[in-house]
Amino acid sequence: MTSANDKVVLALIGAGGRGTQVILSMQKCVPGVEVKYVCEVDEERGGRAIDELEKQQNFRPVRIDDMRKSFDDKDVDAVVICTPEHWHALATVRACQAGKDVYVEKNISLTIPEGRKMIEAAEKYKRIVQCGFQNRSAPYNFSARDYIQSGKLGKIVVVKTYCMLPGHKPWIYKEDEPVPAGLDWDQWLGPAPSVPYNVSRHKGYNEFWAYSCGLPLADCCHVIDLARMVLGDPDHALSAYCAGGRVLYNDNRDIPDNQTITYDFGEFPMTVEASIYGEYMSKASAEIRYGNLFPNWPFNSDRMEIYGTEGMMYLGRHGAGWQVLTNDAKVAAQDYGYFPDEVHQQDFIKCIRTRKVPNSNIEQGHKSATLVHLANLSYRTGKKQLYYDPVNERVTNSEEANSISAGTYRKGYEMPEIV
To answer: How confident is the model at residue 104 (pLDDT cuts 50, 70, 90)?
Structure first.
């Protein structure tokens, strides 16, 4: 294998919009990085990534349709996994078994046990696994954490988090049809149950529990993870309760479009408002992400409100920064932010070379993902408050929740019992 102190050779697995964005940036923002493979089971995808990488690195990556080809190549140091969520865990485990380091996009797993298997694989094979929670590499989030830990905000009494995405459209489930030419539908499904090809599943996978944690929580996991980070990474929640449903359009989708969640962390509760409606809500603009501006906080889609006995902190994703307000509505402290994608990718490559623990390590990624899974399990078991055993990582008052959480795996795509 190429020396980690010199050139780093990558393979991209999943060349959709986010995968293309990540791999182009990662190759460009760190010296000595080369991309040898672009793996995509759909011939409609990957062309832009390959063309742009050829321009950036002066040679053309090899297109493959089976990720195992990149695992078998000893030249490859690490893989970047940007598939739909149902492939994240198995691809990570297989990569670790092949001796590859891993960058895996959010949400990092589809079930709670999957996250534990990812941790076991990383530890057993001594692999670097960086989760795609890029907020953990942003300097302004370090300063927010430092401010809270200094005690200046007082004792934390409640944390409110938001991922209130703007807009939405009615959804119509289309009829099954033949598999399009150039798509390996069996590989796309991977661990998920075998079903006939359906464009609604293929292009709208975030609407199905079989492939996704669902929008809005597939995006809200960033906010949940960032809240955990600045609070000093508390351990698993003791309980979770999720209300909501198909509020905007009653169109029989698996996934709710509105979820209101309450977590009990013992010393404080944390609430989550995850929704898709309202064009008046918006994420941080480019001017905020790359400049010295703060959002209009009440209308910022993905913000946190951290309440202490001495003040309240607004904190935003995407480089939105943070501000602390006192009881006279004056700003007591603040820090501007900057969009953290590049610094997060740089941290991954640095950790490949140094073997240091990455900013968004798999242990903390798993704990944040577990909060998403507990919320969805609560919703799927009849909006029931679920109590959680953090040692054994099981729900204590619902075997139905544990059964759902166990997941299902098709023959040939099983998660190994011993990784």
So the answer is: very high
